[in-house]
Amino acid sequence: MQKKILLDKALTANPSWKALETHQKKIAETSILTHFKNEPHRLDYTSFDWEDFYVDVSKNRIDQKGFELLIKLAEESGLSEAIKAQFSGAIINTTENRAVLHTALRTLKKDPILVDEKNILPEVEAAQKKMFDFCDKVISGDWKGYTGKSITHIVNIGIGGSDLGPAMVVEALAHYQNHLEVRFVSNVEGDHHVEVLKGLNPETTLFVIVSKTFTTQETLSNANSIREWFLKQAPKQGIAQHFVAVSTNLEKTQEFGIDPENTFPMNDWVGGRFSLWSTVGLSICLAVGPKHFKSLLEGAGKMDLHFSETPFEKNIPVVLALLSIWYNNLWGAESEAIIPYTQYLRNLPAYLQQGIMESNGKYVGRDGKPVDYQTGTIIWGASGTNAQHAFFQLIHQGTKLIPADFIGFKKSLNGNSDHQNKLLANFIAQTEALLAGKTEAQVMEELKKSGLSETEQKQRAPFKIFQGNKPTNTILIEQLTPKNLGALIALYEHKIFVQGILWNIYSYDQWGVELGKQLAKKVLNDIEGKEKNTHDTSTLNLLSKI
Ligand code: F6P
Question: CB of 507 within 8 A of CB of 439?
Answer without folding.
Answer: no
